[in-house]
Amino acid sequence: MSTRKLVSASTANLLIPISGLLVSPFLSRELGPEGRGLYAALTLPIVVCGWIGTYGLQDALSYHVREGRLSRRAAAKVSLVAMAPLGVLAVGLMAVLGLFIFPDPTRHGQFLTLALFAPLHVLANLFIGALTGGSDIRGLNLVKVVPALVRTALVIFCCLAFDLSAYQAGLIFIGSVLTGLVIGLVRLRSAVEVPSGESAPPDPVPTGSLIRYALTCLPGVLAAISSARLDQVVGLPLIGARELGYYAVAVSLAELPMVVATAARTVLMGRPAGESSRDTTQVARLAVLASVVICGLLALSAGFAVPLVFGADFTPAVAPTVILCAGTLLYACMTIYSAALLAHNRPGWSSAALVTGSVVGILALLALAPLGAVGAALASLAGYAVAMIIAGVAVGRVPALGSLRMLTVPYEGDVRLVKEKVARMLEGVRPTAAAVGGGADKADLPGTGSPATSAGSPVSRAVALYRRIGPGTTGVAVLIVLAWTRVLAPQVMQLVDTGRPAFNSREDLVPPLGEAAGNGLTLLFLLLAAGLGVHGLWRRRPAGWRWLAVGVAPLLAVEVAGLLHGQTPGPVAVALPLAAFAIWAQRPREEVLGVIGVLGGLTALVSMVFAAARPDLALISGAAAGEKSVLLGGLLAGPYLHSNVLGIALALSVAFVFHLRHPGLRWTCLALILAALLWTGSRTSQLAVGAVLLTYVLLRLFRHRSWPASVTLAAGALLVVVVPLITTDPESFSERGRIWAALLDRWRDSPIVGWGPKLFQQDPALAAELGGQFNHGHNVMVQLLVVGGLLALVAFGLLCWAAWRRSAMLAAQGRPAALLFLVGLVHVSWLEASHIPTTLSGYVTWLPLLTIALAGPTALLDAPASPARPGAASLPGSRPRPVPWPAPDGLADSHPDTQGGPDGGRPTHVALSGTTATAGPDDDAQKINVPRR
Fold it and tell me: Where is the O-antigen ligase-related domain (predicted)?
């Protein structure tokens, strides 16, 4: 249980510095080194005041709740009452400190405004103390994580959408604590205090005991906070804004391993008395071991990680990062020692160690200030070392703890436990069929670690896998791979043969061999899709034709618009409607979309290797990169014609990584995609991936309830619809305002059917209106209106609505990938539209949408049947109704009730599921243009 709590608390605590790490590159590029230093000077004093302003009451609440001397509801009352005097002291302290840090009246006024939020941070930390004492790890995680996630999303969005100042970013940062306060109050007031049959804690609040314990802890609290953050608070006048910016960046990286020690502290202080010392302190030993490994890896990678993440301007932050990694290891030991002392009622000894270390750190900072960021890092290292040594000596004098070995050096059993858990994680054993929800013979796709397919030769494994998943799922997986190859193969041949074309060039430079390869791949796709459709009709005689109509409606609307305006569709325009037909007829499992996750990781890997081998072809720099800051010599475009196009492909692939059940493959693909995406500099795609990861965390925190993801999805859809309509400045959003205004004016001349998919290629006058040569509308709503009119937009909306219904049900069952894809899609689509052409170039949008909506009720086949209607599957809060869908491919044998009879007629199985429509891409979709930045 200790290990689980450590992992849970560490994961939640890790999200806080990770959120800072995600925000930091955006803020660093938005504000520059000096602005980044100013942001740290404005915000860190408020955060530090939130810790200091509890005056030891946070630890006092933890101790008294842990010992049963104070109920959690009473702790909430104490926190609310104490906030008034403590908040007044906090604001007064900030006002005085502001005079020293900000002599400029304007900056001082901004700082005073932010200081008004200090009482809220004090209250949040009091709530954290009460939850820690109650060992409410889940509530503690929510109070810490939710504000960090909200802050991350808002800051990144504002950096991308607006010109953000350090003060405005500070307002977002400081105000985000409100969400944590609401959650903390609800958790404390709604907590079940004691199990039934046991006596409740005493009602009177032990005020005297709380005050005495808090005052004893106060020196240590002041010292610990000053050791951790005082260097940044007073750094502006001592080392200057630029050096403070470097130091703040180093801290944001080096503090990542601190989360393990912080989690261990939470677990140690929340453990009930009476357990053996060795079992109680196992969490501390594991935390030290993890800190050693993480700090070492971080120090080794700092040389390339800092310039890659924060930009070449922050290269001077490498040396402070390495120094602070060593300091973080000492800080971890110090934190664990002080937690053990507090848990064993030795607050005075803890305070003495922390105070001494803080004094040493402050004196060292004053002496080493001329060295700038390096001097500040060395000062922190010295302070941590002194505090750790004194705390270690004090721990050795506590009889219940025995020795330092019990807190720091792993025993043989600890190492064996770690090895077992790592081995179990790396095995990637496929979950049982019941857990997956697919019946007794349900198997996974490649990369899921199925033991049934892990033995024998590669050929025998492939044959066994094919037999288990069936021809339908296999065929759709091959369709996805063919579409991906069709997009990339001709592009690679063009780059190698003729080089990278000029920005927004309309010249066709694909060599004859590339055209032949593309045509051959298109033909294979068409033949396979047609064959799968016929096979499905012959095998199952599927019903539900209206859902197929929903699937092809957006595609047909766009092509009909082209016919009405004299545009002749090519053979490739038939590819996606045929794919819709094949998916509808075969009903593959939605896990087949994990293939897109693998292809996303492969695309990222190929792009980065291509950049290492041929940077002149795979990177964009100079005028083509616009105003973006380039990383490692340029913006990563890989085999695509622009870095934004690669970014979109990666952003739309990342959700399907969560379909991969083999941990090694899943996390490798995710790491590759995130690294390549950062290198692309595609801010819209980075925002979309941030929304996907935020949604994933919310789904985990709220136990797979789909409403947080639906809220994120609705927010993205609102941006898609509203932003182009309210934007009046032609220069807004990197000149997208001009593009939207021109295209909406053009749409008003043909509002019902639009102008067809080849409008951008066949109307030379349009380039003058748009301000350049572009091939799409840079917003999905604008794109659909101009090429397909209201008919296409309504059909596409119906498709997305149907896909959302099914995705929400899957997410509620613990299968979030489909819903995460929709979140990424809408957040990419409010500033881009290159991913929805009507040919195979749009495979990463249309094929997932079709599969999600038309794949069939795979996840519902094992749902409990309704007593009133045998064979009906239902979800909580939904009314079962028949769905004219056959069983997904490969499941008919294990679910005979899904077949109408031996001939495979209509199923009697019922489930709630939405369906959707589909649309497709265009041959020139690779000639995707983006405004200069």
Answer: 670-796
The angle, 0 to 180 degrees and rounded to 10, between the axes of the packed helices 707-726 and 683-701 is 150
Could you tell me which of 634, 675, 640, 628 has the C-alpha nearest to residue 931? Answer: 628
Coil, helix or strand at residue 198: coil
Rounded mean pLDDT, 510-520: 77
Strand, helix or coil for residue 909: coil
- The closest alpha carbon to 281, from 413, 387, 416, belongs to 413
Quote the CA–CA distance of 892 and 472 in Å, as a whole number.
12
What's the average model confidence in pLDDT over 64-88?
86
Query: Do the beta carbons of residue 756 and residue 564 sit within 8 Å?
Result: yes
Residues whose CB falls within 8 Å of the CB of residue 675, separated by 6 or more in sequence, listed in order: 604, 608
Give 636-670 pLDDT, tens digit per residue.
988 888 888 999 999 999 999 998 888 888 889 99
Phi/psi region, residue 255 (left: phi>0; alpha: psi -120 to 50; beta: rest), is alpha
DSSP label of 757: T
Closest CA to 803 of 709, 735, 727, 729: 709
Per the listing, tokens 């049963």 go with 68
Please check whether residue 373 is in contact with residue 317, taking contact to mean a CB–CB distance below 8 angstroms. Answer: yes
Residue 35 bridge partners (DSSP) = none
Residue 888 corresponds to which tokens in the numbers above? 């997904």
Q: What are the phi and psi torsion angles at 813 (to 5°)?
A: -95, 10
Per-residue pLDDT tens digits for 353-392:
877 887 888 788 888 888 888 888 888 888 889 888 888 8
Would you put residue 102 in left (φ > 0), alpha (ψ -120 to 50) or beta? beta
pLDDT of residue 220: 61
User: How many residues in total does the chain contain?
Assistant: 933
Taking the C-alpha atoms of 127, 132, 137 and 138 in order, what is their torsion angle to the nearest 10 degrees? -10
Q: What is the pLDDT of residues 896-922, one digit of tens each?
A: 233 333 333 333 333 323 333 333 333
Three-state secondary-structure class, residue 714: helix
Region 742-755: what's the mean pLDDT?
91
Question: What Cα–Cα distance (Å) separates residue 902 from each residue in 89, 436, 618, 892?
Answer: 79, 27, 55, 11
The percent helix, strand, coil of the chain (3-state, each to 5) is 70, 0, 25
The CA distance from 285 to 283, in Å, is 6
The pLDDT, as a whole number, for residue 828 is: 94
φ/ψ of 864, rounded to 5, equals -65, 140
> Rounded to an integer, what distance in angstroms lies between the CA atom of residue 136 and that of residue 408?
25
Q: How far apart are CA 750 and CA 748, in angstroms?
A: 5
Q: Please, which residues have CB within 8 angstroms of residue 740's CB and are 6 or more apart in sequence?
A: 724, 727, 777, 778, 779, 782
Burial 703-720, CB ≥16 within 10 A → b, else e = ebebebbbebbeebbebb
- Going by C-beta distance under 8 Å and a sequence separation of 6 or more, which residues neighbour residue 791? 557, 560, 561, 752, 753, 754
Q: Give the residue carrying structure tokens 């509801």.
A: 73
197 backbone φψ class: left, alpha, beta (φ>0; ψ -120 to 50): left
- Domain positions in the chain are 2-191+205-420, 465-858+917-926
Phi/psi of residue 871, nearest 5 degrees = 85, 0
Residue 842: name the closest of 922, 758, 928 by CA.
922
Tokens of 91: 């604001």
Whole-Å CA distances, 846 to 118, 587, 734, 835, 914 = 48, 16, 27, 9, 16
Q: What single string gives the DSSP state of each residue in 103-129? A: -SHHHHHHHHHHHTTHHHHHHHHHHHH
Q: What is the pLDDT of residue 819?
A: 92
Contact assessment for residue 645 and residue 831, using Cβ atoms and an 8 Å cutoff? no
* Digit-coded pLDDT (tens) for 550-586: 889 999 999 999 899 888 887 788 899 999 999 988 8
